[in-house]
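HUMAN: Quick job: go over this next protein and say how the chain folds.
***
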Amino acid sequence: MNDLVGESVTPEGVADGAGRRRFGFVAGLVAFVALSVAPLDLTGPQQALAAILALVVVFWVTEAIPVPATALLALALCSFLAVAPAAEVFSAFASPTIFLFIGSFILARAMSVHGLDRRFALRVLAIRGIAGSTYGTIVAFGAVAALMSAFISNTATTAMLLPIGLGIVGIYGGLIGRSDAKGGPDEHARGTANLSTALMLMIAYSASVGGLLTPIGSPPNLLGRGFLETQTGVTVPFLEWSFIAAPIVAVMFVALCAILIGLNRPEARSIPGASAYIEAERAGLGRFSAGERNTLLAFLAAVTLWILPGVVGIVAGEESAAYDVVRGRLDEGVVALIAASLLFVLPLDRGLRRFTMTWRQAVAIDWGTIVLFGGGIALGSLLSSTGLAGLIGDALAGSLGGAAPFTLTLIAVIAAILISEAASNTASVGIVVP
């Protein structure tokens, strides 16, 4: 699922969205009823689940009702229509993956509350030779977005970096305007158009690319890994995931830099004044606060414990008793909760009993995403347990006539991209660069 930065609020956008939602609501109900009464060669639970899935897909794509609410409705219908007992349907929310979501979201929230994410970004951009170069700035913004989105949400990463990028573009535009006394507004816009486009797109795309680097980088990573473990018994540890993903992310990032800079070649090679802007922003952050220090400690504790089983496996071997013990005790969901709990223990002011995070701050995490993916895990499990997944797979295999594994994988990837984009397009990101 792609992260959404914001919804269009123009009157036309609101009207279009309302029409799409009304159509989706009716279409979803029609699909649900049609599949419920159609004479299909399915068992009762299988046919009910197929009807529910049709309703869910249409509602998700058109956002007929809020996406997390659709997930809740689907679970309720699965129980009501006897697809499975309620205890089985809702057992997905006891999955360690859900608690990994919760813990990592609280850690990311603490980074945002105390400004640790912004300090990190500005520190990287302050490296000598980066801020003063247009090419260096574009690549650095992309690298920062990719690295940060490996641990916090793509939305939070993008939302944090965009104002900094816009500040850089604003300074550059001002310098262009002053250096060209004959240039009017059109000349000013033309002087920053390529840099603005490349920089904004680099931030957004790099956040998506970097989200692949770790299991917690993007919710679909955890969802896919959870299904792999449930259906095949194969577990991919945190460190092993990163080792597998790193070359893919690196190739994608290099290709992204080449394409964006090639298509939007900046109007100038250097940005006089950009370094001063970055330094001024860093100076405005002040000294390293207790909240930032405590958040960093909790984050490092989480990362250390996440990669520890992989390190033990490399050193002692995956067949060793030490590896079995460490892997069994340090479930990644457990580690996330331990690290998140540290935020409520590490003090900001012991005398006033002020701690790094308050519960009011913690509950501001994206519970909708947690509900959505809990619903997704539940529906996936029911597809398997009812046998509907096998029937769908057999039907697709028959229609494709024994296609090669590469062809099947390509079709699955394209379908995932199309469905994801259709869902994400229910909201639009509007960025206007002056």
